[in-house]
Design brief:
Radius of gyration: 27 Å
CATH superfamily of the domain at 12-94: Phenylacetic acid degradation B
CATH class of the domain at 12-94: Alpha Beta
Shape: elongated
Largest sheet: 3 strands, antiparallel
Number of strands: 5
Structural class: alpha+beta
Distance between the termini: 67 Å
Length: 128
């Protein structure tokens, strides 16, 4: 907001070598982007080759997802070792606890029909 001719700006500062600069009543744009201290943490996943899974390679702070993607490319694929990158806000990742492994995965143990022991696998199928 720029003060009009009838408003008087009384609060000024001369910091930064720019002379007397008004510090109140003037739009500064400081709130447009979060400061570096408040940038969210992103988790980075890289897929090395087509057909492989994405693998977690690290974390980084960025102002937004686009910046996180570009920074992840520069940081984690410097030698062309990736074909795809995912960046996910760390606050959006939900994970199970290794301490709760037994109770969390126990329901799958009573569904024996999901195991391949009941099916005849032909020998022509090499990797199943």
């Amino acid at each position: 907001m720029i003060p009009s001719d009838d408003e008087q700006v009384t609060d000024v500062t001369a910091e930064g070598g720019h002379g007397a600069v008004p510090t109140t009543g003037v739009e500064t744009g400081q709130d447009a982007r979060p400061s570096r201290r408040t940038w969210p943490l992103y988790e980075v996943f890289v897929r090395g080759k087509r057909g492989l899974n994405h693998v977690h390679v690290g974390s980084l702070h960025a102002a937004d997802a686009e910046m996180a993607l570009h920074n992840a490319r520069d940081l984690y694929t410097r030698r062309n070792e990736g074909v795809s990158i995912w960046v996910v806000k760390a606050e959006d990742v939900t994970a199970s606890s290794p301490a709760e492994k037994d109770p969390f995965f126990a329901p799958s143990g009573d569904k024996v029909y999901r195991h391949p022991t009941f099916y005849a696998i032909p020998e022509e199928v090499p990797h199943l």
